[in-house]
Automatic annotation (TrEMBL):
Protein name: Bifunctional protein GlmU
Amino acids binding acetyl-CoA: A380, N386, Y387, S405, A423, R440
Subunit structure: Homotrimer.
UniProt cross-references to Pfam families, sorted A to Z: Hexapep (PF00132), NTP_transf_3 (PF12804)
Region (N-acetyltransferase): 252-458
Ranges of residues in domain MobA-like NTP transferase: 6-131
Length: 458
């Protein structure tokens, strides 16, 4: 059974989030909530995905461009009113319509497929996906008759004391016969506590019309979580990260403390890589095999090869080859490229620069706008002075260059292969093959100075 069309409700203002960002664009494990919904329905191969937008319509539409068609709900008068906005687009359709909310990011395709199968089997006019909730607060409740048949859905705000005790909740996912959906919607009123047109009211209406309605209860309540506020957002993130981390562990990645490891959806990690707690891996990050990432490491949009040891460091848009050692407390910024077996030590910042094969930048250095060849040794405290306040300038360092500690390299400058700079130099001119550049004022020693020191004065 195939869902003919999918409608995603994403027009609400999400006022409980207290945010300037439209609710459905808030992220769960690095992806907007509505993206998760689209990803879950895509394998069902719907004819059309139609997203109802309203608050922040342009932002949501730009975000989903190419993945969905859109209708706009100008005023947010309720979920039933939202679906009514798709009437023009869907009215002619004879098939089924699957409806979901953009704020329920945790549903799996398997669960949705099971709902579709149940709907096809029973030939209901509508089948609602329900779940059993330990704590049903905030959800619509499924009211069943004495024969256990579904009678209606009642919103918490409209529920009687008895109804509030019901623990079977409406997940907000439904599959309807499309024609009957719009017939029922035209009869939905707004005579309720919130004065809204409720989509769930269509169940009662269809039943009254003599149609067969039904529910399919999924076993796993955690998939049904609706994110209405930041508390639920954090809870949804936790559930999603648990899922993601379990997947990596099953693929041979060793997570020392999976409850405190934050890996975005889509990050790739090779086997036998060991990741300590409090590591964050974000965006389009790809990590190879046999690496060690220690606590406090944060890597975003970077590519890491194999057998590296990255210790409590931050990497953004960086490329690290193999067998390097990085950190503690190194900072790789965009376009940092670290070649095989290189070493970056503590408090080293690299930006738009290549550190060549086996080269070492051990301590307290800034390497910016530079290309370093192989087996270069950069002494402690070296600064590549690349910026005059207006423009950036490049430095080229050849192979086997030895840069003395506390060298300032004022770009643009070229240090040829096997050249040397003397410690403490401020290098402004090129240094040729086998030359040493020394640029510092000579030391003078003053006699009998001790007694002139202020602290020696009585
Ligand atoms: C809704 C259901 C509730 C269910 C819960 C599951 C209704 C009336 N209630 O409640 O039974 O248990 O979801 O998570 O449907 N939206 C619009 N236009 C509107 C109003 C809402 O597009 O005018 C969208 C929202 O952006 C959201 C979705 O519909 O994505 C659900 O709306 P929300 O206000 O979050 O409904 P709940 O109170 O969670
Ligand atoms: Ca909701």
């Amino acid at each position: 059974m195939q869902a003919t069309n999918v409608v995603i409700l994403a027009a609400g203002n999400g006022s409980r989030m207290k945010s300037d960002l439209p609710k459905v664009l808030h992220q769960v494990a690095g992806r907007a909530m509505v993206d998760w919904v689209v990803a879950a329905v895509a394998p069902l191969k719907p004819n059309k995905i139609l997203t109802v937008t309203g608050v922040g319509a342009k932002q949501v539409q730009d975000h989903l461009a190419g993945k969905s068609d859109f209708v706009v709900q100008e005023q947010q008068l309720g979920t039933g009113h939202a679906v009514l906005q798709t009437k023009q687009a869907l009215a002619d359709n004879e098939g089924a319509t699957l409806i979901l909310s953009g704020d329920t990011p945790l549903f799996t395709t398997e669960t949705l497929q099971a709902l579709l199968d149940e709907h096809a089997r029973t030939k209901n006019a509508v089948t609602v996906l329900t779940a059993f909730a330990e704590n049903p607060t905030g959800y619509g409740r499924i009211v069943r008759g004495e024969d256990e048949m579904v009678l209606k859905i009642v919103e918490e705000k409209d529920a009687s004391v008895t109804e509030r005790r019901i623990q079977e909740i409406n997940t907000g996912v439904y599959i309807f016969d499309n024609q009957l959906l719009f017939e029922a919607l035209s009869q939905v009123g707004n005579d309720n506590v919130q004065a809204e047109y409720y989509l769930p009211d269509t169940l009662d209406i269809l039943r009254e019309m003599g149609q067969q309605i039904g529910a399919y209860q999924t076993m796993d309540f955690s998939e049904s979580m609706g994110v209405n506020d930041r508390v639920a957002l954090a809870a949804a993130n936790k559930i999603m990260r648990t899922r993601i981390n379990r997947g990596h562990m099953q693929n041979g990645v060793e997570l020392i403390d999976p409850d405190n490891t934050y890996i975005d959806a889509g990050v790739q990690i090779g086997k036998d890589t060991v990741i300590e707690g409090n590591v964050t891996l974000k965006g389009k990050t790809v990590i190879g095999q046999d690496n060690v990432l220690t606590a406090g490491t944060r890597i975003e949009d970077s590519t890491i090869g194999d057998e590296n040891v990255i210790t409590s460091s931050h990497l953004e848009e960086a490329l690290v080859e193999n067998q390097t050692t990085i950190g503690p407390y190194a900072h790789l910024r965009p376009l940092a490229e670290i070649k095989d077996r290189a070493h970056l030590g503590n408090f080293v910042e690299v930006k738009k620069a290549t550190v060549g094969l086996g080269s070492k930048v051990g301590h307290l250095s800034y390497v910016g706008n530079a290309t370093l060849g192989a087996d270069v040794n950069v002494g402690a405290g070296t600064i590549f002075v690349n910026y005059d306040g207006v423009n950036k300038f490049d430095t080229t360092v050849g192979d086997r260059v030895f840069i003395g500690s506390n060298t300032k390299i004022i770009a643009p400058v070229t240090l040829a292969d096997e050249s040397i700079t003397a410690a403490g130099s401020t290098i402004t001119d090129d240094v040729d093959f086998h030359q040493m550049g020394i640029a510092r004022s000579r030391q003078t020693n003053k006699d009998d100075f001790w007694d002139r020191m202020p602290h020696k004065k009585g």
